[in-house]
Amino acid sequence: MSVEENFAKNSEFNLSMVPSKFASFMRTCVIWQFIRFVAINLKMIIVVRKSH
Amino acid sequence: MARLVVLGAGVAGHTTATFAKKWLGNGHEVVVVTPNSLWNWIPSNIWVGVGGMSKEDVVFPLAPVYQKAGIDFRQAKAVSIHPEGKDGSDTPYVTVEYTGQNKEGQTEEITYDYLVNATGPKLNFDATPGLGNGEGGIGSNTVSVCTADHAVHASQELKQVFEKAKRGERQKILVGTGHGMCTCQGAAFEYIHNIHHEAEKAGVRDNVDIKWISNEAFLGDFGMGGMHMKVNGYVVSSRIFAESLYTERNIPWIIGAHVNKIEEGKAHYELLDGSTGEEEFDFAMLIPPFAGAGMKAYDKAGEDITSKIFNPGGFMFVDGDYAPKPYDEWKAADWPRTYQNRDYKNIFAAGIAFAPPHIISKPAKSPNGTPINPTPPRTGMPSGIIGKAVAHSIVDLIKNGSSAHLHEASMAEMGAACVASAGKGLTGGQAAAMTIYPVVPDFDKYPGTGRDTEYTFGEIGLAGHWIKHILHHLFIWKAKLKPGWTLIPE
Fold it and tell me: B3-123+291-400 maps to which CATH number?
C-alpha cells in the first residue's frame, strides 16, 4: 500500500507531506546511509565542540 | 580535606562525581548518595519497552564502579538539606535514609563542604488521577518506559497486545503525555514509532490502531518550542517533519491535551480550546509529569526554608532570573550559567534538579485556565555538560579558594545532539538524528527562529539508528569509567 493513501484517512494527514518511494528507499539504503552516517557524525561533533 | 556530596547518580550526578573525583584525586572526598543500586542508560529503555533489549543491557551496578574510582557510595535517598548546620555546629549536612547496603530504613547525617543536587525527577504519576497508584508509583491502567523495570513491564504488556492482534482482535494503543505539564515528549515519540516498527515486523500493524496524545501545542514542539532546520534549501519547522512522520506511519494525533483522568482502558482529556474528550485504549504508555525529588531544607534553628531553596515544583533555585515576566520579555540571559544556588554558594544543582526560569515553549492555557504546555527538557547532553561544568567549578573552588572562577554552561549558549529512535534493526532500523543550537532559543541573537540554522538540523534514516546504537555502547562504556572514558564527550 502506498503511503499516499494515508492522505485520505483524515484532514490532518491530508495537509501533511509524505516521502516518495525514492526518499523512503534512501532512508535504509546502506551505501547512502553510510555516507549520511559520516556526514551526521561530523555535524554532531561540531555542535558538541561548540557546546563544551 | 574537602568533602563533595553529590545527590543522585543519573547523567548529571554521575558526570559531576566522576569528573570531580578524577580532578581532585585522593586528597579530597567525593560521596554519591542515590537510592538506586544500578545505573540506567535511560535512552535505551525505549528498546527494552518493545522487547528489543533486556534490562541487563541498559543497567549496571554502581558500587564496583565507584569503588574503583575511590568514590564513597551510599545507597540512600536524600531527605533534607541543612545548609547552615545545626545547634552547636556550623557544618552543613544532608540527612539521608538508606535504601540498600543492608542499612534499609536507617538515617544518617552526612556533612559536606560542597553539595550538588542532581536528584533528577520524581515521576509524579499521582498528578493525574488513575495514572498513579496513589502511593507515588505507577498505577495499573497504563505503562511507562521511564525506568528499566517499567520498560520491562511495558514490553510484556505490549507482547500480549500483539498476540491478541495476531488472533484477530483489533487493539488500540495510545502513547504520549499523561498530564498538561509534562516534559520528555521525545521519549514518547520514540516509543510510539518503535511500537509501529515492531507491529509491522510482527505483521499485526493492520490490526492495531496507534494514536498519539500530547500536551504540545503542535507536533514536533518537544518542549523546546519546536525547531527550524535547513533542509534542501528551505528552513523548515520541525512541525512539518513530525506531521509527515505520523502521517506516513498512519498515526493520528491529539495535541494540546491535558490528560486529567485515567480509568481502565480510557483516558479523559481537556484540550487547549477548552473542549473535553476521552480516548479508549487496550494499551497506553503515558509519560508522567516530573517534580523535584521532594527534599526539605532547614536553617540552623530548624526552621523550614524549603521554599527559599526550592521552587513549588521541588526544583532548586540557582543563578537564573526567576522574576515572573510575560513571554515577550523572556530572554536567553534568564537561564542559569553556573548552577550555583543563589543563597548558599557551596550548593549547586545539575540536570533536571535545577529550577528553570520559565518554560521554553510558548505558554498556553485552555479557556478554563488549565495550563497546557510542555515543560523544558534538561536531560541527556545538557545534563552531562552542566554536570561537568559544576564539577569543574567545585574543583576550582576547593583548589583555589572561594574567589575561583565558576565555569559556565548556559542552555541558551549550548547546543544538543539528539537521536530519536523510530525502530530498531541493523539494516531496517531508523532514527531521527538532530542537532539544535542553542537549546534555549535566543531571539535577539538569531531573529526569527531563535537558533542558528547552520547548526540546527535533522534527518531520519538508518544512519541515525547506527548512531543511537553506537551511543548506547559508548555512554555505558563512559559511565563504567573504562579506558578512555574522559575522551567521550557528554
Answer: 3.50.50.100
C-beta atoms surrounding B22 within 10 Å = 16
Residues with Cβ within 8 Å of residue A15, at least 6 apart in sequence: B243
Q: Which of B435, B462, B467 sits opposite A28 (nearest CB)?
A: B462
Question: Which residues on B lie below 8 Å from A51 (Cβ)?
Answer: 381, 385, 414-416, 437
Hey, which bits of B161-310 come out as E strands?
A: 171-177, 208-213, 228-231, 234-237, 253-254, 257-263, 266-271, 276-280, 283-287, 290-291, 296-297
Rg, Å, chain B Cα set: 22
So where are chain B's domains? 3-123+291-400
ipTM (interface pTM): 0.96
Residue B203 backbone class (left: φ over 0; alpha: ψ -120 to 50; beta: rest): left
B448: its cell numbers? 526569527
Question: Between A and B, how many CB-CB pairs are < 8 A?
Answer: 93
**For B87-128, how does the pLDDT look when each residue is reduced to its tens digit (9 = 90+)?**
999 999 999 999 999 999 999 999 999 999 999 999 999 999
Nearest CA in chain B to A20: B248
CA B78 to chain centre: 19
pLDDT class of B233 with cuts at 50, 70, 90: confident
Which grid cell is A29?
Answer: 539504503
Candidates A6, A35, A47: best to mutate against B (most CBs of B within 10 A) is: A47
Q: CB of B232 within 8 Å of any CB in chain A?
A: no
Report the alpha-carbon angle A18-A21-A25, nearest 5: 110
Q: Indicate the number of domains in chain A.
A: 1
pLDDT tens digit string along A11-34? 999 999 999 999 999 999 999 999
Q: How far is CA B280 from CA B19, B129, B151, B257, in A?
A: 48, 16, 22, 15
